[in-house]
Every structure is written in structure tokens, then in C-alpha cells.
């Protein structure tokens, strides 16, 4: 029996990298893992910042298992493909994914996490500690939000 046997874990950004490694580790420890990602080749989902997607991330595990024990907020990006790095469109998109979607998912999950005495885990990056070249300050916001 694993450390997370029968626990329900939502992992955003789980189609590759840290998120994918987290889902494999949680699954090995017996967790029921809810996947979410932007890579359509790996996981067919919509963008994380869409309200319907976030609500679905909460509703589906509740329907299937009746609870949520852990939310791993891992999804994030540095720019929107096809947009100038310093454009307001890029800023709005990056903020929506990196900050607003995380906050909304936590807001939706809190009532359910309280019932299970569950937790959220926020994944940031070393980009938060670099000199502000681009939008690294988003990573600092993430670090603050998750404390």
C-alpha cells in the first residue's frame, strides 16, 4: 500500500516535465490522479485559464471518487506563441495562466480540501530569482501565492 493510497490528486500541467513526473510518482504511491495539460498529443484538454476547464477539474474527481485530497498547481508558461514578448496580449495571457487560473483553482478546491484536510502544492521555477528580463516576476507572484 502506497503513501497516497486512494488519495485523489489533481495535477495541472501534467502532460510533461515536473507535472508528468509528479503524476507518475503519485500513481506509484497509489493515488487516483486527475490529469491536465496543454499538450494535445499527450492530454486532450483546453487551456487552464478557461473557467469551464477549472470547474471540470474539480467536478470530475468529485463525481468519480467523492473527494479531493491534493491539488498540484504546476501549469505555467512564459509567453504566448505568436505574440511579441512585451505585448499586452502576451502579458494578459501569461497572467491569466500563471496567476489567475491558479488562484481560481485553489478557490474552487478549498471547500473540498478542508473536508479531507488536504493540501495544495505550488510549483514555481528558478525563473523567479533571475533579474527581470521578461515576465519572471510572475514566478515571484506564484511563490508568494503558494506560501
TrEMBL record:
<protein>
    <submittedName>
        <fullName>Uncharacterized protein</fullName>
    </submittedName>
</protein>
<dbReference type="InterPro" id="IPR002347">
    <property type="entry name" value="SDR_fam"/>
</dbReference>
<dbReference type="InterPro" id="IPR036291">
    <property type="entry name" value="NAD(P)-bd_dom_sf"/>
</dbReference>
<dbReference type="Pfam" id="PF00106">
    <property type="entry name" value="adh_short"/>
</dbReference>
Amino acid at each position: 500500500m502506497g503513501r497516497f493510497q486512494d488519495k485523489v490528486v489533481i495535477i495541472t500541467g501534467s502532460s510533461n516535465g515536473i507535472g508528468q513526473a509528479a503524476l507518475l510518482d503519485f500513481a506509484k504511491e497509489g493515488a487516483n490522479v486527475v490529469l491536465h495539460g496543454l499538450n494535445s498529443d499527450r492530454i486532450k484538454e483546453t487551456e487552464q485559464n478557461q473557467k469551464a476547464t477549472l470547474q471540470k477539474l474539480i467536478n470530475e474527481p468529485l463525481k468519480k471518487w467523492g473527494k479531493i485530497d491534493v491539488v498540484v498547481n504546476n501549469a505555467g508558461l512564459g509567453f504566448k506563441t505568436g505574440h511579441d514578448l512585451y505585448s499586452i496580449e502576451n502579458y494578459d495571457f501569461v497572467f491569466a495562466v500563471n496567476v489567475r487560473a491558479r488562484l481560481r483553482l485553489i478557490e474552487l478546491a478549498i471547500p473540498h480540501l478542508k473536508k479531507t484536510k488536504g493540501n495544495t502544492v505550488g510549483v514555481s521555477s528558478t525563473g523567479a530569482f533571475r533579474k527581470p528580463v521578461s515576465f519572471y516576476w510572475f514566478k515571484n507572484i506564484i511563490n508568494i501565492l503558494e506560501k
